[in-house]
């Protein structure tokens, strides 16, 4: 709901509300938190009062001098549909648009607020230059404020200057008494592009947090009439603890960001054999043998590495054709692992203007240039034309990790590339090697991100941390069946909570391991739907001993317990205590109340590097 009344702006999404009021010609954020009726004393909901556009929200220069601004509201209106932009954005309906200007500074600012039914508010802003050229060195993209009494900060944080704490990725603020299932929590998530960092600071009893673009080492230039689209963020509220906040954020991402054809679809099971890394040197006989092995194991896709090779090169094209024909023969799809972004192909006829310096004398493609986007689109088109149906895109983490104008431009180019690929080649699934350095906007085009080289026990903690931002269905993990350390079952159990892939030399797999992997793949096909659209619950009392994914109707659940540390049982979450549950692995029936209150009994041997999975 959106209500505009006598200078007050009241928005509700699910159980959350976002309230603002006019302050003279300016705008103040009254609160964001638990939904109350408009007639209530809104300042009492959380009681945080802060400027919606702070004095240091923008750092601007014109003719070598700082630009001072004081935006005034010109117009406020409710739009029937949320306007679309070229970058990823949450899908939405009714949207509040507030237009502000500062005539003296020759600046305009457009703010868009869209309520999200699952319990959040999306905010997007566009800065418009109405005068002479100017440079931007800082721009806040959106934030939230809450009363700072009894609050704690969750996430990777580094103390900074001016009383600010710098936070990487999503920001979660929770009451100090809140835990996984109880208490109030507020989260701020970036949809797109280039910020990735947020600040948190306390001022006069109010905790403020916002994502921002930092162009201090490479100012972003706006000519007269040009605009800067700031990263969209969405704020989420939950009174069911940090876990409730995570589940609400996952629902919003799945329903409003991920394309519908991916939202509830099991991701393809991909198999990569390192012997196929140098595709040009692999003959048709070996390719056929590997495709046959992938088919017997039950994999959907056999991945071959193209590296930095040009798919339009005659030798590479011939090798790719051999791979596609071998995969087609055995009913598996052909996937390509491409590292185009890292290529220094200037000696291969690639125009040097498409490249940028990458360090140590190397070069890589500059996705901040439209001509580079067009060039790489042509290469992907060639892959699809050759019969490739899965693309693992190895992204340049160095370009993403720098919070600079080049990072923003790089992400804009990356999004444009994937948007065109997604629209023009629906038969192609994509997987991104982005890790934690990418925002969730990439999920608008790429259904899987962050695939790890190998599942380990340590990766279980990392997956839970990543799942605070990304739904499990988008987190991929490769399992190496022949690696040492944790048992194969443990590594599979960890990888099964998300998109599953294997990395193994198929010729070196013995009969026992082959049978185990085949059984794992068929088991995963039964359980993967829960990870795609279920609710995530962390298990353990603060020691992170596992995760559980429950269906929306709580009729079934899939749990993985890792490093139980000699426990006899683990208390489960997310179940209906009135239900009776048949535990497949134990062959027994338990009440939901017993599993939640007393716990599920663990088999003997629940020690370090072991895991137990239950459906």
Word description of this protein:
- The model is unreliable at 42-47 (pLDDT under 50).
- Strands 8, 9, 10, 11, 13, 16, 17, 21 and 22 form a 9-stranded antiparallel beta sheet that branches. Strands 6, 7, 12, 14, 15, 18, 19 and 20 form an 8-stranded antiparallel beta sheet that branches.
- It is built from 11 helices and 40 strands.
- It starts with a strand and ends with a strand.
- The protein is of the alpha+beta class.
- β18 (197-203) and β19 (206-214) form a beta hairpin.
- α5 packs parallel to α7.
- 23% of the residues lie in helices and 35% in strands.
- The radius of gyration is 25 Å and the shape is globular.
Write the layout of secondary structure elements.
Blueprint: E1 2-5, E2 8-13, E3 16-23, E4 26-34, E5 50-51, E6 58-62, E7 65-66, E8 72-79, E9 95-102, E10 107-116, E11 120-129, E12 134-147, E13 151-154, E14 157-159, E15 165-168, E16 171-175, E17 185-190, E18 197-203, E19 206-214, E20 220-222, E21 227-229, E22 233-238, H1 241-256, H2 260-263, E23 270-272, H3 284-297, E24 301-307, H4 314-329, E25 333-338, E26 355-359, E27 362-365, H5 370-385, E28 390-394, H6 397-401, H7 405-424, E29 429-433, E30 448-452, H8 457-466, E31 475-479, H9 488-496, E32 499-503, H10 511-533, E33 535-539, E34 546-550, E35 557-562, E36 569-570, E37 580-583, E38 588-591, H11 592-597, E39 600-601, E40 611-614
Helix pairs in contact: 3-4, 5-7
Compute the average pLDDT.
82
Oligomeric composition of the shown chains: single chain
Principal-axes geometry comes out as globular
Alpha-beta content class: alpha+beta
Cα distance, first to last residue?
A: 39 Å
Task: List the total number of helices.
Answer: 11
Helix content: 10-25%
Radius of gyration, whole Å: 25 Å
Main beta sheet: 9 strands, antiparallel
| Count of DSSP strands | 40
Q: Tell me what portion of residues adopts beta-strand conformation.
A: 35-45%
The stretches of 5 or more residues where confidence is low (pLDDT under 50) are 42-47
